[in-house]
């Protein structure tokens, strides 16, 4: 029988009733003739609750121990779902990440999957069992429990599908991928299909439906991933490899990110060594700089604007204060209230003029743009938050999003 | 440095404050110059909560999955205690049962420890770390998570102490072993020391302070076990091998069990085959029969009384109803409200007349006795519950308990 990997997120298993419903859905899929591997997250807000307990004890809990702690959340879910399946006559067996030989590399609380023992899964399937897997967790070379970072259950599901060479279905509390987050733009369209590249750019630009690393992995191993509502009765969105010439419109989707801040550096000497020095000092603090734009030099001085996560703003400022003392022309301004708007479309590869068209739209609507960056399939703009609604509506109208 | 195994039960780690207190206590012991292996139970009522969730899904949840579920309780405790220790500057590392190579045999939810990998413990100790171990759990030969049954954390602690050849301290919410449960007899004395044999008989006669299997294991490997209050500032009771001649009194302690029922069979043919058949049918239902007494035959018919757990009474009755049809002389009476009183003392081995003295005491106080059984160091009586208080006081007075 064909195998499908399904993943149910925390909101799909947040209480006993919902776990029973997931069991019923799995029973139906089994009846339709599929063998199933089911990856589950921790129940509802369990992970937050566990983290909160640790933080009541320490502001900097050992990450090794955080992994031991957090891994219990998924372990509870797999046992309860397995009990629920067996109760309705569907043979099921649960496995923790370590039990399934999900070997990981890298650091505690943000490990990466290195290997999965597919024989354990196939043995259980051959015995007619639904295989229930704890998402988000694995074991490192020292036999320590590890976790994959928030949203890591998506990655577990895609990695297993890649290993088994089968499709993956991610069930969540939204019914698919939309051109724009429907909470921001209620008349947004649901996409039937989206390419890996576009989904990656959307996910990394603030659209939180699916974990970025899961999409990367799906692209590498060419795993078709369906994102759908956990009730299973509404058609979701398929993420897969797409031929760009099949696309009709230049822009597939629009993402909004309100978690970034912007810093503008003025009076920076036009010397690549100095500029590199500033950014490398910031990078050493593990601050992820996103958009950067630099003006042309005037009197051998340039201005540089860049965005960074809001939470990291104060740390970055401490670096910049040092340069103020060393370079007499240097000053900086911070903007902790900005909106990053990204338009994404694989069609941009073949259709030119998207950037200029976008400028036109923004100009027509009196929307000031602070930074622009472009990649092959994405253009991002930093605008003022008060222009966000107007900008979304103008772009959505123009590109029929 | 000498090693000590300490065990903290669920009430000692029931909330974050108590976990911090346990960490402080461990830090003090470390300062006093001990290396420590600390076994912890699940926080407070966690195990009950987990079992309740499973029972909301199924009346007969798969035992394999119950073990996966219940094992999470101790895993949460070990990580939080390790975080708490590291927070106050005491290097610590946590291990689940499977991580520590606690190999088990037997059935899910009531497995027995077969082997422990002491090298993992010693390696961590040699690195200067306090080793935190999840009690109650292990892993079987199929790499499945197993648990040891309620109270199994005591067994984990004693098994590790046996393996390391070191003493074991069980910290709990009572400050030691008393001659009589102080809730039943407030002026009971705390014992400084008690023999393994006596503790085993006390534990199996209804004194619930420490897990029977832990005492058995301690006796086999001659591990001295201290039972004390989790605040650590009150001297507890040491359970160890005792030379009976050192004892002064015949009776060390008195245990009361109100969880048993009694059945009296009348008109049973004095035929060992029939009697064996009745008890083997009851045993097949996994009903644990405790005390048995049989009258001398009258007209080739005997009466037999026995005790069994109250919960099993209705099952046993279903068996007896069959015999009523087959044997015309046969009838039975049930008594679901009885008190089992056991007096225990290693001194009985050398001092005769304890049983007759006890009869005297009970007779003087007008206490009716339904069954008596004796072992080398224990005499148990079934009496009416309304006589319980009077009987305890009379025995305690006579033997200075």
TrEMBL record, chains A, B:
Residues where ATP binds: 7-10, 172-173, 178, 183
Known function: Catalyzes the phosphorylation of the beta-carboxyl group of aspartic acid with ATP to yield 4-phospho-L-aspartate, which is involved in the branched biosynthetic pathway leading to the biosynthesis of amino acids threonine, isoleucine and methionine.
Record-stated family: Belongs to the aspartokinase family.
NCBIfam families the UniProt entry points to: asp_kinases (TIGR00657), PRK06635.1-2 (NF005154), PRK06635.1-4 (NF005155)
Name assigned to this protein: Aspartokinase
GO cellular component terms, semicolon-separated: cytosol
Pathway entry: Amino-acid biosynthesis; L-methionine biosynthesis via de novo pathway; L-homoserine from L-aspartate: step 1/3; Amino-acid biosynthesis; L-threonine biosynthesis; L-threonine from L-aspartate: step 1/5; Amino-acid biosynthesis; L-lysine biosynthesis via DAP pathway; (S)-tetrahydrodipicolinate from L-aspartate: step 1/4
């Amino acid at each position: 029988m064909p195998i499908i990997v399904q993943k149910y997120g925390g909101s799909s298993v947040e209480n006993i009733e919902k776990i029973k419903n997931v069991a019923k859905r799995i029973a139906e899929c089994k009846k339709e003739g599929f063998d199933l591997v089911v990856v589950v997250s921790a129940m509802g807000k369990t992970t937050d609750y566990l983290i909160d307990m640790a933080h009541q004890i320490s502001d900097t809990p050992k990450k090794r121990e955080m992994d031991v702690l957090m891994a219990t959340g998924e372990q509870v879910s797999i046992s309860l779902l397995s009990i629920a399946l067996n109760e309705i006559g569907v043979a099921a067996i649960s496995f923790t990440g370590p039990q399934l030989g999900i070997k990981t590399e890298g650091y505690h609380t943000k490990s990466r999957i290195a290997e999965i023992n597919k024989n354990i899964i196939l043995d259980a399937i051959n015995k007619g069992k639904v295989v229930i897997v704890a998402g988000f967790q694995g074991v490192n070379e020292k036999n320590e429990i590890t976790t994959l970072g928030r949203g890591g259950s998506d990655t577990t599901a895609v990695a297993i599908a890649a290993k088994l060479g089968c499709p993956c279905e991610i069930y969540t509390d939204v019914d698919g991928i939309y051109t724009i987050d429907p909470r921001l733009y209620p008349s947004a369209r649901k996409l039937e299909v989206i390419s890996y590249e576009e989904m990656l750019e959307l996910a990394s630009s603030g659209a939180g439906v699916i974990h970025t690393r899961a999409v990367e992995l799906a692209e590498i191993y060419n795993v078709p991933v369906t994102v759908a509502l956990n009730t299973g009765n509404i058609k979701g969105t398929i993420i897969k490899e797409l031929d760009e010439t099949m696309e009709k419109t230049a822009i597939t989707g629009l993402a909004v990110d309100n978690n970034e801040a912007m810093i503008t550096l003025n009076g920076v000497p036009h010397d690549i060594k100095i500029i590199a020095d500033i950014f490398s000092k910031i990078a050493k603090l593990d601050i992820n700089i996103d958009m950067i734009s630099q003006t042309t030099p005037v009197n051998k001085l340039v201005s540089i604007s860049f965005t960074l996560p809001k939470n990291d703003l104060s740390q970055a400022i401490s670096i910049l204060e040092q340069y103020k003392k060393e370079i007499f022309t240097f000053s900086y301004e911070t903007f902790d209230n900005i909106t990053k708007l990204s338009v994404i479309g694989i069609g941009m590869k073949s259709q030119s003029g998207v950037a200029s068209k976008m400028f036109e739209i923004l100009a027509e609507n009196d929307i000031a743009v602070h930074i622009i960056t472009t990649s092959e399939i994405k253009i991002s703009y930093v605008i003022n938050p008060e222009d966000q609604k107007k900008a979304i509506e103008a772009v959505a109208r123009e590109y029929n999003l």
